[in-house]
Specification:
about 280 residues; mainly alpha; Hypothetical protein af1432; globular; binds fe (ii) ion
């Protein structure tokens, strides 16, 4: 089966807010103004209500209650607002039980959030990658979204066949998926994002997160790849990924990455993720 056929078959994926997708498209532009962010958010009442609730939580400790999107953007800045909105919007689409991947209802989501946190750490560490932190955060959130599609459309037999190859033959997940289905979760995820009309750079970052593109110049998939590896090193391996994910040799060579550097990044990611978890548990 092709990635497109699989995405076409996935009819019951949880809906994602149009406003959230529009915001991701805006990220592709060199600069997004506060006004543009406010304008897009105002089109989605549900998302706006969730955003205001989040901004008024004790986590942000704001002195005055926030009662409008304009005020929220003014007080917290649009970068922070974007992160909250994308987390809220994609979280409600991704927190579903993934039986085929044997994960808890929110394990993929937790892995996506930690990868998003790691992606920001990666662009701060390797600034010659020249990727905006908000774009990095977004591609981290979305990198494994193809698993939602595979989980929904693959029969239990096919899912068991993939699992057997990973667990018994110690095959990498993407290889096992390709052998059994003919495509893998990174291609399927990229195809879904294309259907959502997301920018090409964001599609690329998801399509190649297990095989990052370095030539003719490093693409954003280097960020998703490194972030996914860091998430695994920080202890987040969704489902039965029975093999150790490691950083691609060509990426290590190109960016002269040392073991100490990775260790330090893992600590940064763990610390930052603790804050993200506090935010998620604000209730
Ligand atoms: Fe993946
Ligand atoms: Fe992943």
């Amino acid at each position: 089966m092709t990635a497109r056929e699989l995405v076409t078959r996935a009819k019951n994926l949880p809906p994602v807010s149009y406003a959230a997708l529009k915001l991701v498209s805006l990220l592709d532009q060199s600069s997004v103004s506060n006004e543009e962010v406010v304008q897009v958010l105002k089109c989605d009442n549900v998302l706006t209500a969730k955003l205001l609730r989040a901004c008024n939580s004790p986590y942000f400790g704001l002195a005055e209650p926030v009662s409008s999107v304009d005020q929220a953007v003014f007080l917290l800045g649009h970068q922070q607002i974007l992160h909250i909105v994308l987390t809220l919007a994609f979280g409600s689409a991704m927190v579903v039980p993934l039986s085929g991947y044997a994960v808890e209802a929110n394990e993929l989501w937790r892995h996506s959030l930690i990868t998003a946190t790691a992606a920001e750490a990666v662009v701060n560490e390797f600034n010659d990658l020249n990727v905006e932190p908000s774009v990095a955060f977004t591609v981290g959130l979305l990198h494994d979204i193809g698993k939602l599609v595979l989980n929904q459309v693959l029969t239990p037999d096919l899912q068991a066949a993939i699992r057997e190859k990973i667990e018994q033959e110690k095959m990498a997940r993407v290889e096992a998926e390709t052998l059994v289905v003919g495509t893998d979760h990174s291609d399927v995820g990229a195809c879904l994002l294309q259907e959502w009309h997301l920018p090409d750079d964001i599609v690329e970052a998801v399509a190649h997160h297990h095989a990052p593109v370095l030539k003719p110049r490093p693409r954003i998939s280097v960020v998703t790849h490194l972030a996914n590896c860091l998430a695994h090193l920080a202890g987040s391996a969704p489902g039965w990924d029975g093999y150790a994910i490691r950083v691609d040799d060509a990426v290590v060579e190109k960016f002269k990455i040392t073991g100490d550097q990775l260790d330090t990044l893992v600590i940064t990611v763990r610390d930052s993720f603790e804050k993200v978890e506090q935010f998620m548990n604000m209730g």
